[in-house]
């Protein structure tokens, strides 16, 4: 139940980020080429929103099982071995994603203490690192749950 609510929130946030990216790009293009007045900070806004979008989408891809998999020989193995390999791969992925989350959490603390901000617009960077850390944790959890509940 909580996973479904989190999925709904992430889908909504991803949609909002996509709409915002389209709006920033549209306003910048119209301003640049028709009015000779580009949107100030458009490149930086695009960078920040695209990074956020990637992190928001990561748990959704894990929940849907949409990551790239190479399973050339797995189909030839007995079903219990296939299941064990799937659980092993999900566990390795979860460990790596938790390490990413730990690293991003440390980065968030550093950026928060240093008051790190983007160059042009002065947007605080710590919340983006926090978003990345939480997204990696959610992705690890979704991937494990998907594999453990998969028949």
Walkthrough of the structure:
By secondary structure, the protein is mostly helical. The protein has one domain (2-149). It is built from 4 helices and no strands. The protein has helices at residues 2-33, 42-64, 79-114, 126-149. It is elongated and about 65 Å long. The two termini are 20 Å apart. InterPro entries: DctQ (IPR055348), TRAP_DctQ (IPR007387). Belongs to the TRAP transporter small permease family. Residues 21-144 form the Tripartite ATP-independent periplasmic transporters DctQ component domain. The complex comprises the extracytoplasmic solute receptor protein and the two transmembrane proteins.
**N-to-C SSE string, H for helix and E for strand:** HHHH
Low-confidence stretches: none
Biggest sheet statistics: none
So what's the overall shape?
A: elongated
Radius of gyration: 19 Å
The count of strands amounts to: 0
In short:
The protein has 151 residues and is an all-alpha fold. It has helices at residues 2-33, 42-64, 79-114, 126-149. It is built from 4 helices and no strands.
């Amino acid at each position: 139940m909580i996973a479904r609510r989190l999925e709904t929130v992430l889908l909504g946030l991803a949609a909002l980020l996509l709409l915002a990216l389209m709006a920033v790009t549209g306003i910048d293009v119209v301003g640049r080429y028709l009015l000779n007045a580009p949107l100030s900070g458009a490149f930086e806004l695009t960078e920040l929103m695209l990074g956020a979008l990637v992190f928001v989408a990561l748990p959704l891809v894990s929940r849907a099982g949409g990551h790239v998999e190479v399973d050339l020989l797995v189909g030839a193995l007995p079903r219990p071995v296939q299941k064990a390999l799937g659980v092993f791969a999900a566990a390795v992925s979860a460990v790596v994603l938790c390490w990413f989350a730990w690293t991003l959490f440390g980065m968030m603390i550093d950026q928060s203490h240093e008051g790190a901000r983007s160059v042009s617009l002065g947007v605080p960077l710590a919340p983006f690192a926090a978003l990345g850390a939480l997204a990696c944790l959610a992705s690890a959890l979704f991937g494990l749950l998907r594999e453990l509940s998969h028949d």
